[in-house]
Design a protein that fits this description.
Layout lengths: L1 E6 L4 E8 L4 E8 L7 H15 L19 H17 L3 H20 L2 H19 L1
Helix pairs in contact: 1-3, 2-3, 2-4, 3-4
């Protein structure tokens, strides 16, 4: 395999993979700007974390594993597992709270089986995990 990574100043990552024997080539482009939370989503997540931190309930966070019944659950399981693993390793409390809020947001969207909300929550959680890895 021949793998080429290109990362530009705008945060766009392009990965090109070529299989020399077959000539097959795959190119994937990842633009982090598309994965960022909107200001409204950030405010909502902050409010949920503040309510939770103050001892209140995170009202839209699922209390059970109902998200697993979603038609999209299987696709999201690796992302959720990665987020839970990073959450268990988080040493910064504020970072852990933000990660928990994003994770709960995805599970909540899955519980409602709301495809648009799942995409938004998936993008937000992916962006957060990407930022933790950088």
């Amino acid at each position: 395999l021949e793998v080429t990574f290109t990362y530009d100043v705008n945060g766009i990552l392009e990965v090109q993979v070529l299989v020399p024997l077959t000539g097959k080539e795959v190119v994937r482009r990842i633009d982090r700007q598309k994965l960022r939370m909107s200001d409204a989503e950030k405010r909502q997540a902050t409010e949920r974390v503040e309510r939770w931190h103050a001892g209140g309930a995170m009202t839209d966070a699922p209390k059970d594993e109902s998200w697993r019944t979603s038609s999209q659950a299987r696709k999201m399981e690796p992302l959720i597992a990665d987020a839970e693993r990073k959450l268990s390793q988080a040493s910064d409390a504020a970072q852990a709270e933000r990660l928990r809020a994003a994770l709960d947001g995805l599970k909540s969207a899955l519980s409602r089986d709301d495809a648009a909300a799942v995409r938004t929550a998936e993008d937000a959680l992916t962006d957060m995990l990407f930022d933790l890895d950088v």
